[in-house]
Fold each of these.
Amino acid sequence: MTALFALATSLLWGVADFGGGVLTRRTPALTVVVVSQCIAAVVLGAVVLATGGWSEAGALLWFAVAAGVVGPVAMLSFYKALALGPMGVVSPLGSLGVAVPVGVGLMVGERPGLAQFAGVAVAVVGIVLAGGPQLRGAPVQRRAVVLTLVAAFGFGTVMTLIAEASATVTGLFLALFVQRVTNIAVGGTALYVSVRRGGRALPEDGGAAVVRASLPALAFVGLADVAANGTYAIAAQHGPVTVAAVLASLYPVVTALAARGLLGERMRGIQAAGAGLALIGTVLLATG
């Protein structure tokens, strides 16, 4: 069950990142985050009402609040790092956030078998290589590296927090709703500050009409992200976090494959090698 739900997480995060990346080519990144999360919050609110999730309110929801605060900060740091570039350095570094939940799992006493330890090592190397690291001639600003590491730590922290935010399925719906509302509050504040400083909330070409036309895609991105958080929480609660976190972090491979299949982007040799290693690591983790 852990492997199944964790792999579902990587698929959902991968397609969500792909969709978000495509949308941010025309629409400001913060607007994409806020609008997609608003749609997700409306859907989750209806689910919570229908399932009676409000009865699960308790102290565990503070984990969801914390995840909701950290998530937008991590995403904004990552987008800024990508803007500074080069992407061939930033993207692989961003995937190192898997070290946070894996480290937590080891600290609380999880001890994977030899095959699973090998799977963790192979899969992590594959994840980094799948991002297409730029190994030569890549001038990197120190600020880009710092922002990327902040983002990576934030992504890993969100994974750790959301796994602790509920103990039941209905409680998970409520936790995800609280996380989305907090995301909106933090992201909305950042968007407001950006606009006050001269930034744009709407695309330069097309304005609000572009956002309206993109609502189905924005809904898909927001709901895929919600579903990914949910499947990861289930995976982490029903098996070793060290296994769940690594398998869930295969999403860069999914994003790269989606870009190749849907946009015709060519995968570099190092990315193809990384995808192969990630697959080998997945087999070791699932069967270890």
Amino acid sequence: MKRHGFINDLFKYRTILLMLTPAVLFFLLFAYVPMAGIIIAFKHYDYAGGIFGSAWNGLDNFRFFFESGDAWRITRNTALYNIAFIIVNNVLQIFTAILLFEVGGKWFRKITQSILFLPYFISWVVVGAIAYNLLNFDIGTVNSLLRGIGMEPIDIYNTPAYWPYILTIVSAWKMLGYGTVMYLAAITSIDTEMYEAAEIDGANVFQRILKVTVPNLYPTVIILVLLAVGNIFRGDFGMFYNMIGNNGVLFSSTDVIDTFVFRSLITSNDIGMSAAAGVFQSVLGFTAIMLVNYSVRRYDKDRALF
């Protein structure tokens, strides 16, 4: 019997579709089905009525969120931190990948990659403990060294101005190996004949990097930045919570949407307002990725995500 159209495609690509099924089911169950919970943001949630039985309250949860005075602060912090992470992390990762490709031999490159990748697997709980033992005012290693050389200790955990720099450095340290491996893979996939042609033309190592390596990294950089922009309004809860905890002194410069939502649930038990903050976060993220993807598409549609 001859198959036509959609049925024919299902039969023809049955093996590939079967391999794709677990991923599709995963996203359906854990990304799309839970979206029904968005309605909590528009309800006065009570445990007796549950998600669908609670009374509707319109936009009251959003109104409370914005009138609380926290919306602008946590949105600003979330966006600025992620912009800093995107810029600093990508620059360091590209630089390290190029350095390993140009300088390191095969074994040196493998060993260095493994060492750089190690922090990526360290839990944020452990990183937070390490940071506390380094930066604590009384027993921290940094202040112990400062006292040892006759300098005044620094009360880092009570000084919000230090933390944008500390968190950016910690993020760069933890993500350096992961990004370096991706960029190094992109560099090694560049046609070697391009490098040979550049050498024949008399290009030195810096000229080869600027004229061959960097231009060929543009597609990878654009894709990774676009994916990162999609999460620009989503703070890394593990990092911010384990590095800062419930230290209210630092909230002015470190509080992000994710930690705000968590504290709202823990302290006030206001599920509706927490859900409203989450919906607000998702809308901002969706808007950001659409705008950036549109901008990239206007410049070069082949490099856009869609």
Amino acid sequence: MRPGIAIIGTGMVGQMCHLANFAANPACRVVAIADLRPDLATAAAKKFGIPRVYGTHRELLADSEVSAVVVVTKRRATGPIVLDALNSGRHVLSEKPMAYTTVQAASLVEAARRQRLVYSIGYMKRHDAGVARALAELRRLRTDGSLGRVVGARGWCFGGDTGRSHDNFVMTGETRPDGLELWQDGPDWMPGTMRPGYDNFLNVFSHIINLARYVLGSSPTIAESTLENTGAARITLDFDGVACTLDLVNGSEGAWREGLTIDFERGALSIELPPPFAEQEAEVILDQGGQRTRLMREGSWAFRRQADAFVADIVEQGTPLASGEDSVADIALAEAIWKRRVSG
């Protein structure tokens, strides 16, 4: 039987990146949506042909046809809603960040483990077909030794134009409502003046940190970090002796620039990521002795592949590429980086 998917939160990202992709997947049924903005929920349901609309996530979770939910709400409300969904026995895909503290994140992972549920976090870059090609190429290079050993890595994110489409979502003039349960937006030790920057750091820069862990190793240590209250940073992570320096700046003008380069003794492998909402794959560039080759791209989209993978994981009880359990490490790293700033 095809799983019944429901979307909680029907704003731009909820519609464009999630609702549209699940609605296009014949292996599932999108049976319901929930949003505190009734006009927006009704308009989105009409656009995508969704049969049922609910005003709150708790009303939606009472629907027996819902077997899995996608949570795309304001960041501080994500954790409480995910916890309700997991406790009700629903599989979950939630946008990142999954939480603001490791304690919060661990409580969600424990709820999913207790119920034996699929719990996936929206690090869609792990699902990018270009990233998959880069991983295959990296394995080859490490096996055949043609470029020598890995000597270091560099990552960057200079946030600019997000590349969003303007024709595949609807919006209304409704004000975002209050009344949602919100989790604390940082650890107890974090001053309130730092929390907006911490929020931005988790929302934007956790992607490239997560991708570096996916490519280079899941459990790096922090070698160095320079951090501003805005969330801009230069961070060096140590992956078992391989240093990866990340330059992170948000709000730059012009094109979105984000990527990761792995340096070898005699060349390099680079992943140039598309803007977050652009329907295109990452570019992979192989530098061998100064000769640069771009690996062939196809026409897939990371968000579509992420949606398809979530449905497949539900059906097959698979482990997500970006599982909740693995993603706790991103929150722990963010906490540790910001605590270094507080501690001086």
